[in-house]
Amino acid sequence: MTLEKIVKVLGFIAFLGGIARMGMTPSGLIWGSDSTPELIFAFAASILMAISSMALFMSQSRQTGVFGFISGLILSAGNLMLSATFYGLFAYGGYPKDGLFVNLANSLSYGGLLFATVILMIVTFRAKVFPRWYAIVFLLMLVCLGLPFLGDFFAFFWGLTYVLMGYSIFTGKGISVVTVKKEEISL
């Protein structure tokens, strides 16, 4: 399997992860926060997003460089840590008791995801691979995180970023890939 096909498969997984993350918003509004349906969507989305976050970097790696790579790694690790939290809610019936490890893990997970999202938004906007209006969706996600009356829609816009970018990666639509001549590649 070629690298291009792997990136396309990861793009499709990002698309599915975004749909699962978007499903958290209506289920949370209907059944309440931390309800079983919302947590099922959250767990599935976290696993899928952990697997596919590197595709957001790989599809524009030449343009985003080290910062894109770092944001992809942090997004993958943060989503993996979130999935562990959601698994704990299913397996043990509640959030773990506060302690040094739990506080450190939550700080790294949530803070890392926020930091990596801001980096990814900036490098994606500058790379000009995806349509520039995708950055507006990133901003909507961050605004929803910061405003209490929009907090229920945070997961929707977070999922929407993965749906848009995953769809673009999988189909190749909306992506302006810079072509490189064979003479420019030197090993």
TrEMBL record:
It comes from the Bacteria. Keywords: Membrane, Transmembrane, Transmembrane helix. The chain crosses the membrane at residues 12-33, 39-58, 65-87, 107-125, 132-150, 156-180. This is Uncharacterized protein. It comes from Neobacillus rhizophilus. The lineage of its organism: Bacteria, Bacillati, Bacillota, Bacilli, Bacillales.
